[in-house]
Amino acid sequence: MAILNILEFPDPRLRTIAKPVDVVDDGIRQLVDDMFETMYDAPGIGLAATQVNVHKRVVVMDLSEDKSEPRVFINPSSNH
Predict the structure, then answer these.
(1) What are the angstrom distances between the C-alpha of 32 and each of 9, 10, 11, 60?
(2) Cα–Cα distance, 80 to 72 (Å, whole number)
(3) Does residue 56 contact residue 31 with C-beta atoms inside 8 Å?
(4) Which domains does the chain have, with CATH numbers?
(5) pTM for the predicted model, two decimal places
């Protein structure tokens, strides 16, 4: 696993539209692992792939206080 660099506002790359994930392969699994490690190290409760300069529709989060409820969202959508 690796701690990734988190982009900060006003970095224009944060406005890049993320592309859907077609296949959950080893590369996506590694990305998710790296994103969790990065998020916990930050520390934070959520992280989108675009924030680590990977423009795929992947989000990780863990709202628990003891880091016991990690959640991964691949290709999430909103009904807005």
Answers:
(1) 22, 24, 22, 7
(2) 21
(3) yes
(4) 12-74 (3.90.45.10)
(5) 0.93
> Is the sign of the CA dihedral 66, 27, 8, 14 positive or negative?
negative
For the segment 10-63, what is each residue's pLDDT rounded down to a tens digit?
999 999 999 999 999 999 999 999 999 999 999 999 999 999 999 999 999 999
Task: For tokens 């959520």, name the residue.
Answer: 46
In this structure, which amino acid lies at residue 49? A
Q: How far apart are alpha carbons 5 and 43 in whole angstroms?
A: 13
Per residue in 3-23, pLDDT (tens digit) is: 999 999 999 999 999 999 999
Name the helix (H) or strand (E) containing 74. Answer: strand 71-74
**pLDDT classification of 80: cutoffs 50, 70, 90:** confident
| Residue 72, φ and ψ in degrees, nearest 5 | -120, 135
